[in-house]
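Following up on my earlier message about iron/sulfur cluster. Here are the inputs again, as you asked, copied directly from the submission form:
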Amino acid sequence: MKIEISEYAGFCYGVMRAIRIADDALLKHKKIYSLGPIIHNPQVVAEYEKKGMKVIEKLEDAEGPVLIRSHGAPPSVYKRIKEMGLEYIDATCPFVKEAQRFAENLYKEGYKVVVFGDEKHPEVKAHLGYTDYTAAVICTPMQAKDIKASRVGVVCQTTQSVEMFGKTIGELAKRIRELKVYNTICDATEKRQKAAEELAKRSDVMIIIGGKNSANTRKLYEISSHYTQAYHIETEDELKPEWFENRELIGITAGASTPTYIIQRVYNRIMEMVNG
Ligand code: SF4
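Thanks, got it. Here's what our run produced:
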């Protein structure tokens, strides 16, 4: 029996950067207010709450510096923070910022903006703000059939699957005369998904670690379960010994918001289970 951890598992550049920015801010300020959880990982959020970061769902609950997380925020949020006389700490991932800039430019150039992604995801909600809430959100080739405009500009949620994005663009290209596409799927996502797929093809079971509310972790689960038996867990406490009975290769991957120490704990617990 062998356990293999996938390449590119765990924290991505944008999440590591957001954590570093939050750490610096917590050294400077006694208390900071994170608009939404800093990352989609309940264990990390709980850790930062102890350090002085309060998660708020609406700006009105902020009483000090507001942290904009890696998913970014629409322009109205920055404006409102200034109106409230508060400071903001911007931890938006630079790749997300770039996608926002593309969306804004497409809107200003008169394109019908289409955001490929999950309409409920905070990153997508923020993108909409850069198009004055005129953009359409789609996430399947089928939905592409509903887009009726002669000039369409597309940006993509950074954590979407490359394959589905390609199929959807193909569908749009069948009928849109002028189609401008920015592939804003981040490199880290693509590499992590490809590595997970490659490992899942060879593994008898895949363990995917990350917040149940993390879109990119759920994507890894979807990809992996296409090839083998897969389980999505947040911590080692969810592991069950029967998952590993008569398995030769156990694969592990983790979403962009999973810290290395959680991956290590999962690895160790599996080792304990398989070695009795
Ligand atoms: S997945 Fe990519 S775009 Fe998203 S935070 Fe990480 S580095 Fe940035």
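One observation from looking it over: The chain has a mean pLDDT of 95. Hope that helps, and feel free to reply on this thread.
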